[in-house]
Amino acid sequence: MSDVKKFCYLNRKAPYGTVYAWESLEVVLIGAAFDQDCSLVFADDGVYQLMKGSDTTGLGIKNFSPTYSALGDYDIKKIYVEKESLEERGLSLDDLQHLVWEDEDEDYAEKDSIMVVTKDELAQILEEQDVVLSF
Fold first, then answer.
1. Per-residue confidence band for 1, with pLDDT thresholds at 50, 70 and 90
2. Could you give the 3-state DSSP secondary structure of residue 100?
3. Do the beta carbons of residue 10 and residue 135 sit within 8 Å?
4. Would you state the pLDDT for residue 73?
5. Hey, what CATH topology would domain 6-134 get?
6. Helix or strand or coil: residue 56?
7. 110 torsion bin: left (phi>0), alpha (psi -120 to 50), beta (else)
8. Strand residue runs (E) in 15-95
9. Each residue of 7-41: pLDDT tens digit?
10. 118-130 residue pLDDT tens
11. Sign (positive/negative) of CA torsion 77, 53, 42, 38?
């Protein structure tokens, strides 16, 4: 059995209006920098965190959405998005940022990080984690 614990960061809040989304992103990047086995889950309004073309100009706050594109550089390649949450909000995978990681074993081929999963699949993924942090 591996000594590396599986950490899952569960995101259920909209990206702006609270600190939850930004805090989650900071914590997962810190965890990955310390070689934790990190995965991210986006459900409920959390799916909005990955939307393409976020513009916070009208809110007068910094747009941190482009930071998600750095996740692959931190070896974070397990990003799960709940299918039902997307559908309930009239969204699809095409509405989300294209996030990738580079596979060293395949000459640094870019591979998709985002996996759309059902509620039942997500329940199984969460069950397999050692630690789940909810934001």
1. low
2. strand
3. yes
4. 93
5. Hypothetical Protein Ychn; Chain: A, (3.40.1260)
6. coil
7. beta
8. 37-42, 78-82
9. 999 999 999 888 999 999 999 999 999 989 999 99
10. 999 999 999 999 9
11. positive
